[in-house]
Amino acid sequence: MTGGVLTFGETMLLLTGRDVGAVPDLEHMRVDTGGAESNVAIGLVRAGVPTTWIGRVGTDPAGDRVTRDVRGEGVDVVAVSDPDHSTGIMMKERLTDGRTRVTYHRRGSAGSALRAEDLPVSVVERATLLHVTGITLALSDSARDAVDAAIERADRAGVPVSFDVNHRPKLIDADTARERYRSTATHSSVVFAGDDEARLVLGLTDDEGDDETLAHELAALGRGRAVVKLGSRGAVASIDGRFLRRPATPVRVVDPVGAGDAFVAGWLAATLTGASPDEALDRAADAGALACTVESDWRRPDPAALHDPTIPADVDHAVHDRVDR
Q: How high is the pLDDT of residue 256?
């Protein structure tokens, strides 16, 4: 590999309840940061893949924390300071019924003001891979334009594109989302989606399409490669017409948020360093499972969690609610 991965999007200040309970009942919250693209960037760097993350942050302490955390993990950070918009905030609660609820306060945020001009000259063209998500496509018109412009530049330069659907229904309606996601998928060398997201992209109902059908049809929409994340059922993939299946790695779930990003980072790191698709799926599943064992979207988990025989096979990467505002 001669270059690095490029990704961009919104990263926010994250406030996490230290105890079980809803925000009104909590005495303390832990300060952290989180964002899908920066989570992937951190996972890639830990796997030895140089990665650049680009984003907009406010000229505020929250923005300072975002850039410090992401840069502190070895990611090459290009953060545009926005004096007119504040850094977004998200809050994470562990509810008494076992769900993790995440509330986003990002309307009018600095991250949503991302624009094509924020991507420096030649930064796309020098990349080994461009990674984008459906979140950035849904944040705002200017953020969507940034994705479209980056993909156009990548196409001209022969840079492959990775696309994680990462659908946020509070940010975008299903019909608009489907159109944008399908367009992006057609330019993508690999598409990642949950099974519900794959059905959305393909225009299927909740009871249409088995795992193999979803993987193959999503791959056919793009350039022959797709990976479908199935939560507690593991993951499947369609790689140049070949179907792969991998069961979930059993772990005790502490916090499922960020597991999908770790999964994507695991897959990309493996394929970029020459691993076979089977090995890439193994590494992705392990990375996603490990991410569930820590109370953070990106902090380093203990690899021993994959080998502890006392940990039950109760993994579910999807037991959480998201509320975007």
A: 75
% of the chain surpassing 70 pLDDT: 90
Q: Which residues pair with 20 in a beta bridge?
A: 94
Which CA distances in Å does 284 have to 40, 84, 135, 309? 12, 39, 21, 21
- Find residue 305's DSSP bridge partners: none
Please tell me what DSSP assigns to residue 88: P
The residues, ordered by sequence, that sit 6+ positions from 157 with a Cβ below 8 Å of its Cβ are 124, 125
83 burial (CB, 10 Å; 0-12 / 13-18 / 19+) is exposed
Nearest-angstrom CA–CA distance, 259 and 288: 4
Q: CA nearest 79: which of 44, 108, 124, 119?
A: 119
Higher pLDDT, 27 or 1: 27
Q: How far apart are the first and last CA of the chain?
A: 40
**Averaged pLDDT for residues 62-83:** 96
Phi, psi for 68 (deg, rounded to 5): -65, -45
Give residue 231's pLDDT.
87
Q: Which residues are catalytic?
A: 261
Q: Does the pLDDT value for residue 84 go beyond 50?
A: yes
Q: Are 188 and 161 in contact (CB under 8 A)?
A: yes
Rg over alpha carbons for the chain, rounded to the nearest Å, is 18
State the pLDDT at residue 317: 36
Q: How confident is the model at residue 314 (pLDDT cuts 50, 70, 90)?
A: very low
Which pair of tokens denotes residue 178? 């489907």
**Pair of tokens at residue 297:** 């979207």
Write the DSSP symbol of residue 257: T
CA angle 288, 147, 273 (to 5 degrees): 45
